[in-house]
UniProtKB/TrEMBL annotation:
SUPFAM superfamilies: 2Fe-2S ferredoxin-like (SSF54292), CO dehydrogenase ISP C-domain like (SSF47741). Pfam families: Fer2, Fer2_2. It comes from the Bacteria. Keywords: 2Fe-2S, Iron, Iron-sulfur, Metal-binding, Oxidoreductase. Residues 1-77 form the 2Fe-2S ferredoxin-type domain. Transmembrane segments: none annotated. It comes from Luteimonas salinilitoris. Signal peptide: none annotated. This is (2Fe-2S)-binding protein. InterPro entries: 2Fe-2S-bd, 2Fe-2S-bd_dom_sf, 2Fe-2S_ferredoxin-like_sf, 2Fe-2S_ferredoxin-type, 2Fe2S_fd_BS, Beta-grasp_dom_sf, Diverse_Oxidoreductases.
Length: 156
């Protein structure tokens, strides 16, 4: 049995200690926003926040999460989609296929919480999520827009 604080609600879940947090979130709690991509914490499709820091949930065993830690999924970032990063993503039509985008949004929200005015170099260093569609220019523009810098996607 594990106790998790997810999106402000405490949940008791019955899972083997080594079960990845991602599977508990998706299969037991029905929070399917975080996606399975690689299973080895490389792509970032499974990114959630734990105590305001981005974490790749596919490789984190549920028993490594303390019951006092606060887990936030894309569903808890903003129930109505009003988070500035979500709004910027919509305004600039960032996703192409969209599979990786919840992880991208969670990583971007964490970046802006830590650094409200990131440079291109800051964005490059912190946004390590992989997008097979290659929407990186739109991701950068949306992060800048969410930070208040306007951000227009590069043409081409």
């Amino acid at each position: 049995m594990a106790r998790l604080n997810v999106n402000g609600t405490t949940h008791d879940v019955d899972a083997d200690p080594g079960t990845p947090l991602l599977w508990v979130l998706r299969e037991q709690l029905g929070l399917t926003g975080a996606k399975y991509g690689c299973g080895i914490a490389q792509c970032g499709s499974c990114t959630v926040h734990i105590d305001d820091m981005p974490v790749r949930a596919c490789a984190l065993p549920v028993d490594a999460v303390d019951p006092e830690q606060r887990i936030v999924t894309i569903e808890g970032l903003s129930p109505d989609g009003s988070h500035p990063v979500q709004q910027a993503w919509l305004a600039l039509d960032v996703p192409q296929c969209g599979y990786c985008q919840t992880g991208m949004i969670m990583a971007a929200a964490s970046l802006l919480a830590q650094n409200p005015n990131p440079s291109d170099a800051d964005i490059d260093a912190e946004m390590t999520n992989i997008c097979r569609c290659g929407t990186y220019n739109r991701v950068r523009a949306a992060i800048k827009r969410a930070a208040g810098g306007g951000g227009q996607p590069a043409q081409g």
